[in-house]
Amino acid sequence: MEYYVDIADIGAVRAVNEAFAIDGFTTNPNILTRTDRPLSELFSEYRDYIRQTGQTIFVQVTAGDAEGMVDQAKRLHAFFGDNLVVKLPAIREGYKACKRCKALGFRVCVTVVHSTMQALMAAKAGADYAAPYISHIDNIGADGVHCVDEIVKAFDRAGAACKVLGASFRTVEQVDKLAIVGCHAVTITPETFDMLIAHPSTDVSMRGFNKAWREKYGDKQVTDFLPTEG
Ligand code: G3P
Fold first, then answer.
1. pTM
2. pLDDT at residue 230 greater than cutoff 80
3. CATH of residue 135
4. 118 pocket-lining for ligand 1 (C-beta < 6 Å)
5. Residue 87 annotated to the active site
6. How many domains is the chain built from?
7. Alpha carbon nearest to ligand 1 atom 6, residue
8. Residue 90's closest CA among 55, 116, 58?
9. Is 56's C-beta closer than 6 angstroms to any atom of ligand 1?
10. Which of 24, 34, 52, 183 could cysteine-pair with 56, CB 3.0–4.6 Å?
11. Res 229: pLDDT
């Protein structure tokens, strides 16, 4: 599964990248309002990061019509290059822009997906990713995980190359279940990355290791006991 960090703060992306194996980071218009940094400065830092790491950045267009979306996609692609995935909304103008962006050779994610059909239409339009919003789907009385399960199966049956990028999580359980149903990618907050690997039993075991070691060997480290060669 591909893992992305869902955040505007590039320092936080770098910190997650130091600890975990990730594929890049995702932004959206909401996320880009949650920073006090000038966006032009941030965008330069985003570009430095993707150039250094070879990872992917997702940036969403803000235009309302297909023409404006394609124009923004061209300009975003000119700035970020092929490591960019352009996010287009799952509305009529977004699908229209998707076809045109694919003809231009850009990678595309159809986002704010809330149904299987929206995802299937994204795949049909050549999108590289379709991004269902899990918690938003749950909040409208449906089942986000079940929706992803259906989309993954429908893509498989259709032989679609489009990947499902799960977004909008409230719990680790949602991420866990998406992995089980074969979701191809998720985008999650830095805090969620830490929660994915947190386990109280691991902490108990670690306390046990540390206590036993300290009692017998004090402050020495395992490498202090390596014999000196020759
Ligand atoms: O990637 C989508 C995500 O940012 C949506 O977040 O908080 O609306 O569930 P939220």
1. 0.95
2. no
3. 3.20.20.70
4. no
5. yes
6. 1
7. 168
8. 116
9. no
10. 24
11. 86
